[in-house]
Automatic annotation (TrEMBL):
This is Bacterial Ig-like domain-containing protein. InterPro entries: Ig-like_fold (IPR013783), Ig-like_OmpL47-like (IPR058094).
Length: 294
């Protein structure tokens, strides 16, 4: 029999795509080196070769991905040819590189209710805000107090009373690291002081036994019958009552340095013996002569 002739027909152009791999900054261009990868396919006769050039450079056979490392605005040209000789139309793609060598800038804000002397009297939220105009911020690290490990910032809530410090830094998407910032101080005292008020009969004094474990005692105000009679700012916290009389009531309010306060219960400002003495009843006069005669 006759042999049938065998032949191939390929009229289809190859197809080439590109990938630009690098860090795109907040501004829309690359802020790092760029790796260029070209990928070509052909449905029938397979790809013979791919050529490319940057700007007005010479055409080069593409073999492996290549890096573009200098700052500048570029135009990449490329096309592929298949084994049948079909030549793809030249493709153009523009890109820009402006390397980012500047680290981000981070600031902090303490959020909470403030009392006296810059003490916070509630839990404190620490807000860290980082900005980077080129590559953009990758992450922020922080640590509370001197003896803790660095942690990635996702939000900070501090609830414990005491004196606190925070340090922090940020890193952008191309690895520029900000210098450590801090330590910055903030103090929390949410706990009122304690007070125990007693009457010193011998010296006619109101005596306040007070304590505050965090910010310390600022002052004690002494009241007699709801009227402020004196303020004491240093130990001992005592106040002499002039000419106390039956029925007088004493009370005191203690304030710590953060502005927290505690009020004592009311107490008698005259001793029981004085009260009894001042309220004793004289013997009726008609009967007094009997005692004399007796």
């Amino acid at each position: 029999g006759l042999n049938s002739p065998f032949f191939k027909i390929d009229k289809t152009l190859p197809t080439t795509t590109h990938e630009l791999d690098g860090v795109i900054g907040e501004c829309g261009w690359f802020v790092s080196d760029v790796t260029v990868t070209l990928s070509a396919i052909d449905a029938t006769s397979e790809v013979d070769y791919t050529k490319y050039k940057l700007d007005e450079g010479t055409w080069t056979n593409y073999v492996d991905p290549f890096d573009v490392t200098e700052d500048g605005e570029y135009t990449l040209y490329y096309y592929s040819v298949d084994l049948a000789g079909n030549t793809e139309e030249t493709i153009e793609v523009e890109f820009k590189i402006e390397h980012d060598t500047t680290p981000p800038v981070t600031t902090h804000e303490f959020q909470g209710d403030t009392g006296d002397n810059d003490w916070y009297t509630t839990n404190v939220v620490v807000m860290l805000t980082a900005e980077d105009d080129l590559a953009g911020v990758d992450y922020t690290m922080y640590k509370l107090e001197d003896d803790t490990e660095w942690q990635k910032y996702t939000g900070i809530l501090v609830t414990e009373d005491g004196e606190h410090t925070i340090e922090y830094y940020s890193v952008d998407k191309v690895g520029n690291k900000e210098a450590d910032k801090g330590p910055f101080d903030f103090d929390i005292d949410q706990t009122p002081p304690t007070i125990d008020l007693t009457w010193d009969d011998e010296d006619s004094k109101l005596v306040a036994d007070v304590d505050d474990e965090t910010s310390g005692i600022a002052k004690v105000e002494f009241y007699v019958n709801d009227e402020l009679v004196g303020t004491v700012t240093t130990a001992p916290y005592e106040w002499e009552v002039t000419k106390p009389k039956q029925g007088d009531k004493g009370q005191a309010i203690v304030f710590d340095n953060a502005g927290n306060e505690a009020i004592s219960p009311e107490i008698d400002a005259v001793s029981q013996s004085q009260s009894q003495s001042s309220s004793s009843t004289p013997v009726p006069w008609p009967f007094s002569w009997l005692f004399c005669l007796w």
